[in-house]
Amino acid sequence: IWQSDDLPTSNPDYSPNTDNYDYWKSHMWAKQEDGEVPQLKFFTVAVLTEAGVEGSFNDGIALFENWNALIDNWRTNVDGQTSVDRYGAEFVETPSTLSSVMVTDGFIFSYYYLQQKIIQEAFFGIGLSLLFALIILTFATGNFLMAVYSTFCISAIVGCVLGFAAMNGWKLGVVESIIFVMVVGMSVDYVVHLSEAYLASGKYYRGDRTRRMLGIVAGSVFSGAISTLIGIFWLFFATVQLFYKFGAFIFFLICVSAACSLLSFTAALTLFGPEGSQGNVMLFATQCWTKCRNRDAQSTARSNSNSDARAGQVEMS
Description:
By secondary structure, the protein is mainly alpha-helical. The protein has 8 helices and 2 strands; from the N terminus they run αββααααααα. The chain has helices at residues 20-24, 57-75, 108-141, 144-167, 174-199, 206-233, 241-272, 281-316; strands at 28-31, 39-43. The protein has a two-stranded antiparallel sheet with strand order 1-2. A hairpin with a 7-residue loop joins strand 1 and strand 2 (39-43). Helix 3 packs antiparallel against helix 4 and helix 4 runs antiparallel to helix 5 (174-199).
């Protein structure tokens, strides 16, 4: 019945001889069976919002949840702030035949959830990479102190790369997420060479070890950084945004890695680097094993002594 009624004069788009069906037919679908009155099956309502890919994903997710809450309230006839629409017409009850309502969009809301998941996975990947770097450096260098220092240096490099992305206003996407995880692996290269040279220097004191370390690998590390920068430099002229962004990330990463390794890491070793056998994993494991064996031997001797004492008491009795 409503479809055949004339369009209300309060509608800004009112025109004579126009019924509701003619005005709303592009937004609703009806089905007619056996000559009966067409039955409304579903309809759409278009709403213009300010949501976009440039906005915060937290705000976008909150907006999507608010839309779903509005729809649930409308379907269950929850009273709103007013009982009339903008034309002054009274709101009517939601039809009982309305079985489902959903919010659709141009994949904007799904993009917000994608952003949330990418950020979670990126930080999880970075944390997992740092954990594996710590474990592998401990076995590679045989010194847990050097592994801890190296991992801390790598963490600082990762923080610099994250700040570089934020400074350029780059949103975290699939490419950025992959690069952030790659940062840990690429940052290990220079640090592990310096750590190995520090431990293989043949010196005892940290100052002598650091000087010997620089004499062994500083030139190689610096040359490797320069050659990598020269190779990456040409990506700045790429017309594809993906290649340009990848080149900028790697170029900045190599600069920061080389600076942190040759300057910050070296200065830290001069002040806090292990001396002698400090932090040696094999020595620590040997000492723990020796203490455990001595404790077992003492327990066995004490047990035998108590057994002999009890045996003497039995003979005397």
